[in-house]
């Protein structure tokens, strides 16, 4: 109930914010409903006038029917029109807000959890549904007003008619089941729905298209897609079938009761105990009373649906607030690093993961140092990088920036002092200038800076190959857009990471995997030189790589193994120690001989 009230308040407040005047006009429909409510009464007056040869009463009844029909028709039309318009505008306002909230959640954890992804999928699947929630509320409001009026009219005509309200109760109870089935069906559909979207992407986008064809996966993908779509639709189809059966049973029960009550009243009318006008009114009201039962049913259904839809939105909003509050640090990051970054007992487990991916990691990354992070696939390197950049919240332990806990720092301000290139780099399909320039938004239009970043990020060749230079639109799906190779996209991502000139933490998480070993080595040497030259700022440069030739140039090498720190030292120290690092280094060196 509390969720439903919160949901109603949410949609009504949004509607008023979008347009107070249209919101008011939407209510005109309910007023029209109230006016038309009294029509059976006018008909009863008319019948009474006929029976008692009272032309005045007949004329009054006709005038009342004509006036109420005209007025309620006009109000209905105006209200309905306003409602349709308002419903779209409110839906759009909510969809925009969902996009804003999703993008502004400062961490990435929610995008790694299937529970959160299912909720987001349900919100995305039901695009415009929050506008529909306003519609549901307005319908419910109109229906409840109408139902209440009908009940008053029925009670005034003959109390036995109220028995028909009881006859409608099974359908009200059934609605609660239907709503529950509906919720379960939506939940059951969410995961296969995501799978179907993923498979559709696999079979219709160019990127995975090559592997799908080379490995002959078309049939497998098609079969899985058919299965996923079937699993996606099946709960809904089953729900529709069950709902129809239950509804039909409820209608049969109601009409059985209605026939019995009317027969009872006819019996009394024959004996002169019930006036004919009342009988006419009763016949007219039977349909409306069934409607009243349906209305109550729909209202429960509508409000529960509204509560569920708005509940997902409120969940998203609350989640964003919760994440923001968990990162409520306000301290500004230091202008320069003096001590460096200290990691104390850090652990991280991905949402729903059984085992933590990082545990008990303690390290000191001295100010001004170039640190190489190595380890086999799945050792936890990228996870550590994301914790240092504040993209994940540690499960345990902390990260200290010059002695200040990262949790106490203002997260956006810390992010503004972090730069780099990531393993899952983004293909930003803007112009080349913007694609690189967004690495430092205030200087996105500064083409000298963009060219410098391209130079430092080994992206000059890419620029030279673009037909309109920095003005070239990237991405073949856009008009005159140019597609780039994987390595070219990656170089642009590296250049983007070079846009900020004063980072305190520069992260290079395997940004060079698509480059040859010599280019990677040269690039890293350049980073290391630049980092040492900028030693006054104390920036820490963190390079994640699998190439040991590159690692040798680092001041400090950290070896991760199974989520723990296995070794720490300089390249020379670790080779001399003849441990895991020396073994991996020797293996790779042998490969090059
Ligand atoms: N989104 C995720 N959800 C659950 N587990 C994850 C997720 N991402 C990574 N992991 C797990 O965390 C562990 C560490 O992964 P991480 O990506 O940090 O390794 P890595 O050392 O960077 O590997 P690679 O060299 O392959 O990039 C792995 O066991 C991986 O399965």
From TrEMBL:
<dbReference type="GO" id="GO:0140359">
    <property type="term" value="F:ABC-type transporter activity"/>
</dbReference>
<feature type="transmembrane region" description="Helical">
    <location>
        <begin position="58"/>
        <end position="79"/>
    </location>
</feature>
<dbReference type="InterPro" id="IPR003593">
    <property type="entry name" value="AAA+_ATPase"/>
</dbReference>
<keyword id="KW-1133">Transmembrane helix</keyword>
<dbReference type="GO" id="GO:0005886">
    <property type="term" value="C:plasma membrane"/>
</dbReference>
<keyword id="KW-0812">Transmembrane</keyword>
<dbReference type="Pfam" id="PF00005">
    <property type="entry name" value="ABC_tran"/>
</dbReference>
<dbReference type="InterPro" id="IPR036640">
    <property type="entry name" value="ABC1_TM_sf"/>
</dbReference>
<protein>
    <submittedName>
        <fullName>ATP-binding cassette subfamily B protein</fullName>
    </submittedName>
</protein>
<dbReference type="InterPro" id="IPR027417">
    <property type="entry name" value="P-loop_NTPase"/>
</dbReference>
<dbReference type="InterPro" id="IPR003439">
    <property type="entry name" value="ABC_transporter-like_ATP-bd"/>
</dbReference>
<dbReference type="InterPro" id="IPR017871">
    <property type="entry name" value="ABC_transporter-like_CS"/>
</dbReference>
<keyword id="KW-0067">ATP-binding</keyword>
<feature type="transmembrane region" description="Helical">
    <location>
        <begin position="24"/>
        <end position="46"/>
    </location>
</feature>
<keyword id="KW-0472">Membrane</keyword>
<dbReference type="GO" id="GO:0005524">
    <property type="term" value="F:ATP binding"/>
</dbReference>
<dbReference type="GO" id="GO:0034040">
    <property type="term" value="F:ATPase-coupled lipid transmembrane transporter activity"/>
</dbReference>
<feature type="domain" description="ABC transmembrane type-1">
    <location>
        <begin position="31"/>
        <end position="305"/>
    </location>
</feature>
<feature type="domain" description="ABC transporter">
    <location>
        <begin position="341"/>
        <end position="587"/>
    </location>
</feature>
<dbReference type="InterPro" id="IPR011527">
    <property type="entry name" value="ABC1_TM_dom"/>
</dbReference>
<feature type="transmembrane region" description="Helical">
    <location>
        <begin position="245"/>
        <end position="266"/>
    </location>
</feature>
<dbReference type="InterPro" id="IPR039421">
    <property type="entry name" value="Type_1_exporter"/>
</dbReference>
<dbReference type="GO" id="GO:0016887">
    <property type="term" value="F:ATP hydrolysis activity"/>
</dbReference>
<keyword id="KW-0547">Nucleotide-binding</keyword>
């Amino acid at each position: 109930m509390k969720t439903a009230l919160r949901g109603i308040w949410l949609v009504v407040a949004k509607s008023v914010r979008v347009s107070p005047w249209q919101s008011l006009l939407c209510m005109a429909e309910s007023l029209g409903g109230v006016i038309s409510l009294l029509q059976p009464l006018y008909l009863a007056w008319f019948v009474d006038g006929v029976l008692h040869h009272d032309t005045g009463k007949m004329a009054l009844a006709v005038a009342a029917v004509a006036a109420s029909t005209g007025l309620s028709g006009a109000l209905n039309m105006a209200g309905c029109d306003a409602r349709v318009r308002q419903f779209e505008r409110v839906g759009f306002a909510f969809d925009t807000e969902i996009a804003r909230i999703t993008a502004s959640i400062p961490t990435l954890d929610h995008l790694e959890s299937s529970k959160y992804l299912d909720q987001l999928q349900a919100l995305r699947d039901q695009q415009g549904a929050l506008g529909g929630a306003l519609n549901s509320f307005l319908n419910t409001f109109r229906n409840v007003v109408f139902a209440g009026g009908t009940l008053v009219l029925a009670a005034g005509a003959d109390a036995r008619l109220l028995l028909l309200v009881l006859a409608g109760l099974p359908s009200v109870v059934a609605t609660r089941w239907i709503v529950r089935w509906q919720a379960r069906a939506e939940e059951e559909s969410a995961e296969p729905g995501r799978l179907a979207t993923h498979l559709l992407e696999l079979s219709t986008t160019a990127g995975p298209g090559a592997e799908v064809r080379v490995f002959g996966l078309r049939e497998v993908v098609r079969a899985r897609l058919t299965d996923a779509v079937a699993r996606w639709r099946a709960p809904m189809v089953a729900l529709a079938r069950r709902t129809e059966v239950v509804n039909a049973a409820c209608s049969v029960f109601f009409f059985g009761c209605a026939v019995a009550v009317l027969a009872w009243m006819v019996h009394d009318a024959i004996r002169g105990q019930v006036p004919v006008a009342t009988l006419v009114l009763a016949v007219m009201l039977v349909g409306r009373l069934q409607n009243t039962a349906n209305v109550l049913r729909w209202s429960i259904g509508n409000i529960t649906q509204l509560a569920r839809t708005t509940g997902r939105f409120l969940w998203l909003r609350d989640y964003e607030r919760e994440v923001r509050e968990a990162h409520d640090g306000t301290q500004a990051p230091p202008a320069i690093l003096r001590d460096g970054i200290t990691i104390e007992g850090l652990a991280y487990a991905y949402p729903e993961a059984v085992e933590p991916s990082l545990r008990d990691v303690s390290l000191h990354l001295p100010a001004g140092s170039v640190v190489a992070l190595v380890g086999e696939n799945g050792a936890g390197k990228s996870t550590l990088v994301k914790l240092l950049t504040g993209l994940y919240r540690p499960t345990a332990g902390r990260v200290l920036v010059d002695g200040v806990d990262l949790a106490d720092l203002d997260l956006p301000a810390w992010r503004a002092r972090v730069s780099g290139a990531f393993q899952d780099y983004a293909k930003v399909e803007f112009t080349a200038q913007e694609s690189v320039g967004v690495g430092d938004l205030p200087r996105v239009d500064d083409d000298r800076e963009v060219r410098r970043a391209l130079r430092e990020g080994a992206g000059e060749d890419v620029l030279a190959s673009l037909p309109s230079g920095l003005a070239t639109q990237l991405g073949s799906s856009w008009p005159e857009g140019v597609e780039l190779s994987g390595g070219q996209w990656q170089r642009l991502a590296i250049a983007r990471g070079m846009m900020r000139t004063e980072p305190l933490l520069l992260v290079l998480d395997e940004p060079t995997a698509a480059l040859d070993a010599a280019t990677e080595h040269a690039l890293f040497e350049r980073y290391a030189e630049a980092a040492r030259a900028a030693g006054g700022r104390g920036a820490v440069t963190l390079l994640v790589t699998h190439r040991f030739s590159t690692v040798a140039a680092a001041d400090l090498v950290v070896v991760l193994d199974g989520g723990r720190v296995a070794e720490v030292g300089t390249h020379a120290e670790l080779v001399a120690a003849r441990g895991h690092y020396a073994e991996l280094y020797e293996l790779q060196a042998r490969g090059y001989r």
